[in-house]
Predict the 3D structure of the following.
Amino acid sequence: RALSDAGLALHERCEHRDRLCVLGAFAGMLVQLGLYSSAFESRLLDRATAFYRAEGESLIRRLPVAAYLEHCESRMAQEWERCLAHMQASTADALVARVRAELVQRHVPELLRSGFGVLVEGHKVADLARLYRLFGDVGETQALKAYWAQIVRSTGARIMDAGDAAEASQGVVPRVIQLHRSAHEILKSAFEGSADFGLALKDAFESFLNAGAQTFAAKVLARHIDGALERAITEGSEEFEKSGIDDFLAVFRHLSAKDAFEAFFRRDFARRLLLHRSASVELEELLLQRFRSECGSGYTSKAEGMLRDLRRSKSLLEDFAMDPDAKAAVDEAGVELDILALTAGLWPPQPASGLDVTYPAQVCKLQDMFGAFYKAKQSGRSLTWTPLGGQCTLRACFDGHSRKELVVSVLQALVLLLFNRATQLTVEEIHLAIGMDRGHLHRTLQSLALHKTVKVLIKEAKGREIVAEDVFVVNSGFSHKSYRVVVPHISLKEPQEDEDLAERRVFENRQHEVDAVIVRKMKTVKSLSHEQLVSDVLSVVRFPVQLSELEQRIESLIQREYLERDAKEPAMYHYLA
């Protein structure tokens, strides 16, 4: 025992070269005497356990987590090297295991609870890699994985809790993209690209993205991509192509309500195409190609059909311009003609009423000529002219020979052209001249006369309300720093109302799809239990469906006599041929 005590005294974490040499000689002597394992090694391990337990309890409270983890690795390396150099190699594994158990495994809850979140939020990749190695050595990677997924989930939930308003939700997607980029860098560099951790990260993103209102994530993603494509006009599309699309799609993959996103995206896509608010058609086509790769050709078929409409319209207009009579009519009217022939089923629906307006005589003549030309080229199709969604560019001259190009809507253009023949007009006179319904007319006049900075007309009476007796005159002193001035217009629907309408269409389409899935399944098997039918339908549909909504669709099909309940077993359904 005396020899053992002497050896332990020599070992006590000593780094002095002379004492370490003595320790090596002493260990060799004990081996020769056959006392190394029984008299020395077991007591060494017990003393090391007590020492490192005390040290761990002290340092875990005093050191930052990064410094503590570095200390743990340093201690294990020291003990390993000392054992290999001055004691039996068999002792090294056992001794390092004791160090690991006391410094790491004993303090796993504290390290996760008080320090792990700090490392993730600070993006301390090197320290997280050290933590992953240490937890892997003590078999605690599952606890680390669960805690990491929870941090990502709670961080994402805080980001998504921004409210539905466009301004409030403006920063949501950039922050989610940054979270996704940061988490994947940690996964790759700190967690060694673990497939298990990758699945946990995927589940965490899907959890917070698809929580709450089913269409909120789809809305903010559509708003983000719409804004990014518009900003690419001024900021350049090259950078967006390099990283913006990849970052966006990385988040988009986790969205379950992809059908809702498609509806919101296509609405914005149509507006960008019609109002020339996208950086380029090539960039739009690239984005559609990526969506098609992710979701299949059916997902982008309508948007691709809209692009085909634009190309077909360009070809039609070129053919029309080659007709001598058409060319003469265009020259006589003194206009640059641009006509888009759009397929009604592909584009957002236009209001059914309020669009019967009176165009100038030269425009009417061109419309009639193009209508006849179109019917000759496209037999079996009807052509309906709609002033909403289009744009006009008017050249105007104000006082001081100030010349401007005004980019306006078709309805705004119809109103402004009336002032070529009159210095002032009442609301009633404008209404009689154009035939525009009063709702559209009032919004158009408000946009032309009551905007904060772009006032092309002047309303003589004060106030924002428009009445039939109000008089409008041209703002002859109009000025603007730009030669080309975009005159804002007040849309028929506010953006929120437009989104609500798109959302209602999504829910209607979902109902039809769920009905079709149920009927197809029942037509195949003829009879099925409620539980099995619900399970089969949920495994097929491409969007999230609540159980209550699915049960409502089953009841609807029963009422419409597609299905019936079994007389003896109400939980059993039969298909009615």
About this structure: Residues 1-20 have pLDDT under 50 and may be disordered. The CA atoms of residues 447 and 489 lie 5 Å apart.
